[in-house]
């Protein structure tokens, strides 16, 4: 079988796959235009959605594409074909996302940035820190990653509330509401964490009306998709001291343009879409598992329903 790898880490992926799968011929690179002819002979592709989308626009059609990203928004464009099997990267982001969130939750409780500012100003900062114990954390999105984060946070004695498309009883959440319940649920949360995918139902849901319902001491963290947040409304909320702060990992436009207001918004930290990077080792294991399922005619992990967008 011939495999096309389209990813900025293509050389590492190729080495890992060829070492594990001797019956696969690999063609790899990060320039779709240069690989068009080779791609036509590869029924299976592994790669990042933006590069795969460029290849599809050249009229080359795969049988199956394994995305190296959890998000597959570039492949949902109206002008692209959807007559092939597409699988998202799943089951490999829980720990790295949990580590990211724990970093900023603890930094907020321990007033890390404020203490750094005090040090720069040669001020002795002896304010007492807070603790995660007893804090209410609202996870907006209770899929695979959300559940992994919830299990990590449960050991800190937090009150875990979830928001899901289909509310149900799910441990370790104390309760789970629907998206329509979000305006009510944010009112008591100490932390509001967005983990939602990019769908028509999730766009622009974090607007000024919602931010105004949050506690002024609440921290907002967006590690889902930039399209969920109305940027200008978040800036207004921060400038009006309606929120304690915001940690923004994902934006509508990336890289963020120099003129964007986020760069200069008070108490807003940008982390450059680094919350949950794809680690090549686990990604290759997922690909090999799905490859065995593909050859065996079985359902694959992370299969995308194009009509739903995930």
TrEMBL record:
MF term (GO), any: NAD binding
Keywords: NAD, Oxidoreductase
SUPFAM superfamilies reported in the protein's UniProt record: NAD(P)-binding Rossmann-fold domains
Positions of the D-isomer specific 2-hydroxyacid dehydrogenase NAD-binding domain: 103-275
Pfam families listed in its UniProt record: 2-Hacid_dh_C
Source organism superkingdom: Bacteria
Protein name, per record: Phosphoglycerate dehydrogenase
Organism of provenance: Pseudomonas panipatensis
């Amino acid at each position: 079988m011939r495999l096309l790898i389209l990813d900025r880490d293509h050389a590492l992926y190729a080495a890992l796959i060829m070492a594990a799968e001797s019956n696969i011929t690999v063609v790899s690179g990060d320039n779709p235009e240069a690989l068009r002819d080779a791609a036509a002979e590869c029924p299976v592709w592994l790669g990042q959605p933006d590069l795969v989308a460029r290849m599809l626009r050249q009229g080359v059609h795969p049988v199956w594409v394994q995305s190296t990203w959890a998000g597959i928004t570039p492949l949902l464009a109206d002008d692209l074909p959807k007559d092939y099997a597409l699988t998202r990267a799943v089951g490999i982001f829980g720990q790295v996302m949990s580590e990211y969130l724990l970093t900023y939750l603890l930094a907020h409780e321990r007033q890390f940035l404020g203490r750094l500012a005090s040090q720069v100003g040669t001020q002795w900062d002896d304010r007492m820190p807070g603790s995660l114990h007893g804090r209410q954390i609202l996870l907006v999105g209770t899929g695979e990653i959300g559940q992994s984060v919830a299990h990590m946070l449960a050991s800190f004695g937090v009150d875990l509330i979830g928001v899901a498309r289909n509310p149900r009883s799910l441990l370790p959440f104390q309760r789970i509401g629907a998206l329509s319940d979000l305006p009510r649920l944010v009112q008591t949360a100490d932390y509001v964490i967005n983990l939602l995918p990019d769908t028509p139902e999730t766009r622009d849901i974090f607007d000024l009306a919602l931010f105004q319902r949050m506690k002024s001491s609440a921290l907002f963290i967006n590690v889902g998709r930039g399209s969920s947040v109305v940027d200008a409304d978040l800036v207004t909320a921060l400038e009006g001291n309606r929120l304690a702060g915001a940690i923004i990992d994902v934006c509508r436009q990336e890289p963020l343009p120099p003129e964007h207001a986020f760069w200069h918004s008070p108490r807003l930290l940008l982390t450059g879409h680094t919350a949950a990077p794809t680690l090549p080792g686990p990604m290759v294991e997922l690909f090999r598992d799905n490859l065995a399922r593909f050859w065996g005619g079985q359902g694959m992990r992370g299969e995308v329903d194009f009509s739903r967008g995930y």
